[in-house]
Amino acid sequence: MLSLQIRGDNIIFASPTSFAGSDDPMLKHVHFNKVLLPVLLVAPQILITLVFFMWPAGQALYQSFLIEDAFGLSREFVWFENFQYLWHDEIYLQTFWRTAVFSALVAMLAMSIALILAGFAERVIKGAGAYRTLLIWPYAVAPVLAGALWVFMFNPTLGIFPFLLEKINIDWNHYLNGTQAMGLVVAAAAWKQIAYNFLFYLAAMQSIPKSVVEAAAIDGAGPLRRFWTITLPLVSPTTFFLLVINIVYAFFDTFGIIHAVTQGGPANATTILVYKVYSDGFVGLDLGGSAAQSVVLMFIVILMTVIQFRYVEKKVEY
Amino acid sequence: MASITLDSLTKSYGQTEVLHHIQGEIQHGEFIVIVGPSGCGKSTLLRMVAGLETVTSGQVSIGDKVINDLEPADRDIAMVFQNYALYPHMSVEQNMAYGLKIRKFPKAEIKRRVEQAADILEIRDYLKRKPRQLSGGQRQRVAMGRAIVRDPQVFLFDEPLSNLDAKLRVQMRLEIRKLQRRLGVTSIYVTHDQVEAMTLGDRLMVLNGGYVEQFGTPIEVYEKPASVFVAGFIGSPSMNFISAQASKGQLTLPDGTTLASNTSANGPVTLGMRPEHLKQHGSGPIQLEVDLPEQLGATTLVHGRISGTELPITASLNGIHAASSGDVLRFDAPVEQMHIFDAQTGKRIE
Ligand SMILES: Nc1ncnc2c1ncn2[C@@H]1O[C@H](COP(=O)(O)OP(=O)(O)O)[C@@H](O)[C@H]1O
Ligand SMILES: [Mg+2]
Questions:
Q1: DSSP class of residue A79?
Q2: What is the C-alpha to C-alpha distance for residues B158 and B20, in angstroms, rounded to an integer?
Q3: B51-92 pLDDT, tens digit each
Q4: Which residues constitute the domain of residue B314?
Q5: 3-class secondary-structure state, position B314
Q6: Among B residues 33-62, those touching chain A with beta carbons less than 8 Å apart
């Protein structure tokens, strides 16, 4: 069921590659076996998709219509009962709301910091290479490791940050304080995504013609004003694209971080939808309910993918 | 007073010096064209005046104020870029108003100025459009409009017409000239096109490899080119160059032909003759063996060689002329239209 997080990305990223070079005129002169070769070439991808994405998705869908007893001895087909239950489950609805807040915070934090850093990186002349490379590193860190890093830094008894925070009279303990725990997972999740956003923003800024920015400088706009009135509007297509990507990331790809940092606690304060799928299914052993939740998530992914294609492909107008 | 002074202006990128001690005085209201082949440093020079490039050494002043260290915004200049550099997300109106808004002009004044500029440039109908909905010529006008609404002390143009088609270029060239006359704003205009330079400039600064070869009026530059480079660059078709030996006022060409001249030089020189100054004459000393005649309608260009040599030479004849390959035409070389240059340095010898 956790494969859902990968599935979310796969739907979005698979399509550009699947068109590549389909009608290259060079290929027309060479005659391979018209059926066998193409089939052989796409077979591995199709096989992987079927085994790792379609099959578990089908299983989840099927599973979501069943109720299984606690010992796994009998199962009953109950149609939409699992979904009805979710709809009335106060805790589930709270989780929904929490996930929305979490995603919004992660996306906003990761995007605004990346935007500012990219704005600076554009102006850096000396050591630009090193600066950019360092900024990209966090993206290469595995989510669980990123989480572990933050756990160490913020460990209430051993960590450096609680020690420093104590000096300004802040009592840090994310094992007990839900708000602090949420802040910590938001920070860790955003930190990992900044690098990705940074790359996109930097590329977008570099594609703005230099003379446009120079014209604004001659027109009297200082650096800050140029950033607000020229750079920001001109990177707005990237902003929209990243918004969708970041929300998808916060929804599905932050499992590792949450698992390492808070395990959804304290008292479910950091349990977001994906995490609840896991904890209800594998810890609570409510397989049907968990499957129903993952089906809901599946529809959210589909919805976001549609938004992505409808609007991002068309480019935001300016 | 918006005169501009360039005093020993030098620019280096790292170890490479690309502009060498540029010297020049530009009067208030003058239209100066900086002309030269691609890569000679024209844009760099203009951008130093604009404040978009730092000055390595020397001084730029506007009026009697040194502006080396002023931000572009504080120099009271406006610039028109080769690619127009319009703000793509703003309408034509917003593009023109941007600089005024930043300078906190009252709304009514902004509106008045934008409309006035739009009327002058005949872009009133497009005020609400975005740049991408305009043709190249219209964008060019908007870029000009953005420059004139600000009513700056100095206009800077960096090859503003090079992205337009030939016909539009001629039309816009005239308009820019008229506009500049009307507004009387000191202007520096960069181009690699010598026709543009000749027609636009009150004076031309001919640049080559980062050096000023000559700074003078178009007629001066045409009639008394200071060097072989200027002579070959300005004027179309290009001047003919023949190496020659000078002694006692006589020139001896490599094929043995002798020409009368009034030069005081002695020894090896380069003789320059414009194609349009060669006079066809039945017994003229210069014998041109035709390779290829080019019929242009008003004139005929005859490309060929000096008989019995491989020295290329071109003559321009009035009207339609029936010359064909292999014919030998004879020309006179009028003494007063000869240009004599030092064979070593390429500098003009009077
Ligand atoms: N940013 C730069 N770094 C290094 N060299 C440069 C830079 N900009 C221009 N140059 C060099 O300076 C010279 C003049 O360039 P430029 O002023 O753009 O020429 P032009 O406008 O006359 O075609 C060229 O040889 C170019 O290679
Ligand atoms: Mg240039």
A1: T
A2: 20
A3: 999 999 999 999 989 999 999 999 999 999 999 999 999 999
A4: 239-349
A5: strand
A6: 50-52
